Amino acid sequence: MNENLDILRHSTSHLMAQAVKDLFPGVKVAIGPSIENGFYYDFDYDPGFTEEDLEKIEKRMKEIIATNIPIECKVMKRDEAFEFFTKMGETYKVKLLEDIHDAEVNTYTQGSFTDLCRGPHLPSTGKIKAFKLLSLAGAYWRGDEHNKMLTRIYGTAFPDEKSLKEYITFLEEVKKRDHRRLGKELDLFSISDEVGAGLVIYHPNGALLRYLLEDFERKEHLKRGYQFVYGPHIMKLDMWKKSGHFENYRENMYFTKIDEVEYGIKPMNCLAHIMVYKSQIRSYRDLPLRYFELGTVSRHEKSGVLHGLMRVREFTQDDAHIFSRPDQLHQEILGIIRFVQDVMAIFGFQFEMEISTRPSKSIGSDEDWERAEKALKEVLDSEGLPYELNEGDGAFYGPKIDIKLKDAIGRKWQCATIQCDFALPERFDLTYMDSDGKRKRPVMLHRVVLGAMERFIGVLIEHYGGKFPVWLAPVQVMIMNITDDQEPYVKNIYNTMIEEGIRAELDTRNEKLGLKIRESVVKKIPYMVIVGKNEMENDSIAVRIRDGGELKDIKVADFIHRIKEDNTLRR
Ligand SMILES: [Zn+2]
Ligand SMILES: [Zn+2]
Q: Which helix (H) or strand (E) is 563 found in, with range?
């Protein structure tokens, strides 16, 4: 983080605490650090704060800024500080002091407010130029649910008004694009407590969107020489022991028992693909083999990290495992990267790459890990593709390339990964007969392109702000009549369109046209076909385009042609 920004934000958190203490006598202050994009302060105040209070606090903060009081550092003996904060009734500061064993501590004073703080801080309150208080939340003291729930006030600060405004606009944009809100508005999916946290239910429009993505993916995989396979959802526990999942991944797995035999519910799709490989004797000529599955997996994610479609407990990956000879590895990794490049260009994503290395919990020899890491690096280096190193964040069976997408408003999302694995082929004794007549080990690449469909759909909703391009829109056309006279005519148009594979819906309700249009706009449907007396007489239609513009007096066949073009060009 930018150090100056850090100091500014931390100083603004002190300023907020001072204002809160001025306005609400009896408040105790806990901690108030700067964080990414802002700052917060935790307060112990039993009535709690309201949104209106935030305005009052902001006003008071501005008054303190105007007086431009100095922010002064004073070194106190620990005992002296102890006495000082005890006298002030700041019991949380006293608790913090109990954990500090230095003989002296720093305190910062501005007017009537003194904080126990390492600093550094701005020289005076007048140096704070642009800030905003953003939200309220509950937070346990020291993040421990056995402790008291405090009230946290979040805010942000910037060196100037312009940057602050830009950030506030960004936050509004984030809110507008929130996939949980849009998911409801566009009737795509739901997640219900009745069913269970982190378990997604797809409604017709969401299911259609997923079908379209999956259909797209299947075709793209066939084009690149992948073969489809399917594995079962549960496998005997012994399989998971052999693979190392039980040892290294157990906390994330679910288990069940059938006829006294223990089974694990798959958290990954690898093992069935390994069994397909093992089903025959393989020769060097057979390789590489690329097995693809839209595989649904179940993982126990902690309830605190679950978030809409972005983090769920059951999801479907566009998963593939490539079994390759060591001499083919470079080409195969490159092929995956090209695949990702092609696909992400279609959705309009830019991306960055990271290489994650060996984690503390892992299987395989040091030599294998080195070889695998080297293979991944060599491909990116030879292509001149920039990447960052992410030490210790690899999968337990091998290092990986993580691909982070940048969405329309600049946020980064982890979706695709490429993992290089020498360990599982060893554990499952995978071999192929090489040209020299010797048995050798294939290398295994685990990879996803979109990643989890759930997450990718969540990212797409936010990336497009719910305005899916025509080729992906669950409903491409909404057809509406102006009066009942045109009802048989629009029904005919509707039938022609769906027969042609256009995803159309019909609105023949006896409602005002304005209302029908407004509802279609809320659903962000790309095209509205509007038919009145004139259109019917001319055997034509009028089309309103979502992003502006109109097609007047166009023939149905020509319009269908246009949508088919949208589909092929994926626009
Ligand atoms: Zn501080
Ligand atoms: Zn795998």
A: helix 556-569
Ligand nearest to the CA of 418: 2
Give bridge partners of residue 471 from the DSSP assignment: none
Protein residues with C-beta less than 5 angstroms from the ion ligand 2: 268, 270, 446
Nearest to 379 by CA among 340, 329, 447: 329
How far does the centroid of ligand 1 lie from the alpha carbon of residue 8, in Å? Answer: 11
Q: Which ligand is nearest to the CA of 424?
A: 2
Q: Would you call 2 exposed, middle or buried from its count of C-beta atoms within 10 A (0-12, 13-18, 19+)?
A: exposed
Please, are residues 481 and 531 in contact by the beta-carbon 8 Å criterion? yes
Distance 423 CA to ligand 2 centre (A): 12
- Cα–ligand 2 centroid distance for 334 (angstroms): 18
Active-site residue list: 270, 299, 317, 319, 321, 400, 446
Instruction: Per-residue pLDDT tens, the chain, 571 aa: give them.
Output: 578 999 999 999 999 999 999 999 899 999 999 998 999 999 999 999 999 999 999 999 999 999 999 999 999 999 999 999 999 999 999 999 999 889 999 999 999 999 999 889 999 999 999 999 999 999 999 988 899 999 999 999 999 999 999 999 999 999 999 999 999 999 999 999 999 999 999 999 999 999 999 999 999 999 999 999 999 999 999 999 999 999 989 999 999 999 999 999 999 999 999 999 999 999 999 999 999 999 999 999 988 889 999 999 999 999 999 999 999 999 999 999 999 999 999 999 999 999 999 998 888 888 888 888 999 999 999 999 999 999 998 988 889 999 999 999 999 999 899 999 988 999 999 999 999 999 999 999 999 999 999 999 999 999 999 999 999 999 999 999 999 999 999 999 999 999 999 999 999 999 999 999 999 999 999 999 999 999 999 999 999 999 889 999 999 999 999 999 999 999 9
Tokens for 454, please give them: 């759930």
123 C-alpha to ligand 1 centroid (Å): 13
